[in-house]
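Comment thread on ticket #2218

A.B. wrote:
> Attaching the input chain for the structure job we discussed in standup.
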Amino acid sequence: MSIPESQLQTWSHQGSVKQSADTYNTIKNVLEDAAAPYANKEFKVFLQGSYGNDTNIYADSDVDVVICLNSTYYADLSYLDESEKTNYNRDRIVASYEIAEFRKEVLDWLKKRFGSSVKSGKKAIAIAGNGNRRDVDVLPCAQHRRYNSYSSAATSRYNTGIVFWTTDGKEIINFPLQHMENCTSKHQSTSNRFKPNVRIIKNMRNEMIERSIISPKSAPSYYLEGMLWNVPNPKFVNSYGDTFANYWNWLDDCVAADLVCANTLHFLVRDGHDICWNMEDYTSTLTGLRKLWADW
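C.D. wrote:
> Ran it. Output below, let me know if you need it in another format.
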């Protein structure tokens, strides 16, 4: 058997929108309050994750909010030649306010405003839901620049992302705004079929976990979005069932190591990288999808 089109149609629907939007606005207003201890710094608050991408499903709970420090940035010079690195170091000004202090001030401010519902995690700061407010993860981070060329500050070229360090000292670099922009572009280029199919595969992931086909943390939403982003646009057709067959067959035939994240700046599947999907989990997810489909 295969999964009925009616079930796929149900899974394609977006989860809570108004409650999530209200939650985001509440947290954003607090983070941008002029009384916050970091208010005189340059920063930006924005959504990331499923709600930011409009790919949230009914089972999603957390709203992911980023607060990015822009008055201080951290740089990746690995794409520069030696002369360009010399130019960069000539112009470099050492920051007096760094991400560790920023994170502490954000945490202290959130605790002042939300009390004991605020808990500091390995990566983000969790705020438990209350009433109509959903659970929230707030990620304090700083601007990251991946330099592609540097002759002077005015003529330099770089990709702008975010960087933060986990509580055990691991550096994490990502490019969430590029991810969101590219997913939106993909959605438009597929006649608005991309995001409903992402929601379907996320519901299929949850079903596979419930049936013990895959382990609970083997298929994060970010990687599922990236996997489908690689699939050629013509594979997204009017029927959800046909689209599933199209993208599963294409992914089964492609070279996994060639797949990139939706931001186009990281590979999707690589072992030993915190920002990449490991090959075992990628393979088990692809195999599990076919099993779920066949055993329905």
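A.B. wrote:
> Thanks. Noting for the ticket: The two ends are 6 Å apart (CA to CA).
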